[in-house]
Amino acid sequence: MNRPTFDFSGKRVYVAGHGGMVGSAIVRRLAREDCEILTADRGVDLRDQQAVNAWFAQARPDAVFMAAARVGGIAANDAYPAQFLYDNLMIEANVVEAARQVDTAKLLMLGSSCIYPREADQPIAEDALLTGPLEATNQWYAIAKIAGIRLCQAYRIEHGCDFISAMPTNLFGPGDNFDLDTSHVLPALIRKAHEAKVAGDEEMLVWGSGKPRREFLHVDDLADACVFLMREYSGAQHVNVGSGQELSITELARLVADIVGFEGKLAFDSTRHDGTPRKLLDSSRLNAMGWRPAITLEDGIAATYRHFLKDGGRRVMLRG
Ligand code: GDP
């Protein structure tokens, strides 16, 4: 392993989006490092350039984890294309430029596996980026996230900034959005299985055909990978962060139902989009650097269900 490229000791580390699922996981993980964790209060709107510049001038972070984003599942992307594109472009551009202005030593931009072409070869390697058309249902978010990668690369070339990007696969865990209109599939299935169990229903509704395949990573594993990359990695190429645990939506629904304790049948709503047929990341670059996930899908779902029972499912969309 090469020498670490960033040493957390005594550093000021800003987590943008600390109220969201990813940001809060990074804050939990950073508690084990010898650094000062900085978070902006909810009053700082990251879409507002003046507000962002003022926050950075005061906070002067040595490192930034860019986990702030407008996020949502397949239905939310369809319903709010302008918000998904505009908000994410503004947040990324404001944070990256403000970090440059105060000489932030390192920044990690977080994206998503939906940046890759719909028909990309599986598992998807980093160099599949921009080799084909995007999946229509999440193109707005994807375009913004591709711009985020390019922004880091451009600042690296033009300004010498050590800004890197990580592309996680589908995430889940504590702090997830359980709102059925805007959530991703895994929290949605937890809520549906729970409500079907409580109501004594004979079946629970799964969107689409159940055939698409997805890979899932627990957000605490992602947070650990982010800290690892911040410390160990410096390069223009973005890095995939996956678990290698891939299954069909039908298999996932059955697994969630079993963990939640819903014994009824699955019903499929064919009026809903399937989205990308398959989305499995090739995480061999990250694995070769020495990082591996620690949380199994079964354990992760069980822990997330316990959080759901405690929280009752919050509505979280803008991770500011
Ligand atoms: P995607 O990975 O960007 O396609 O986003 P999602 O996590 O929202 O959806 C993944 C897959 O799960 C799609 O094929 C959905 O149609 C399917 N799915 C099945 N049931 C649900 C549900 O209740 N909510 C969501 N969001 N997706 C569901």
What does this structure look like?
The protein has 320 residues and is of the alpha/beta class. The chain has helices spanning 21-30, 49-59, 74-79, 81-101, 139-159, 185-199, 219-232, 249-260, 284-289, 297-311; strands at residues 12-16, 36-38, 63-66, 69-70, 106-110, 162-168, 170-172, 203-207, 213-218, 239-241, 246-248, 265-269, 278-279, 318-319. It contains ten helices and 14 strands. The protein has a six-stranded parallel beta sheet with strand order 2-1-3-5-6-10, with helices on both faces. The longest helix is centred in the first third of the chain and has 21 residues, at 81-101. Mean pLDDT is 94; it is low at 314-320. Bound molecules: guanosine-5'-diphosphate (GDP). Guanosine-5'-diphosphate binds at residues 73-74, 114, 138, 170, 183-185, 188, 206-208, 212, 214, 249, 272-276.
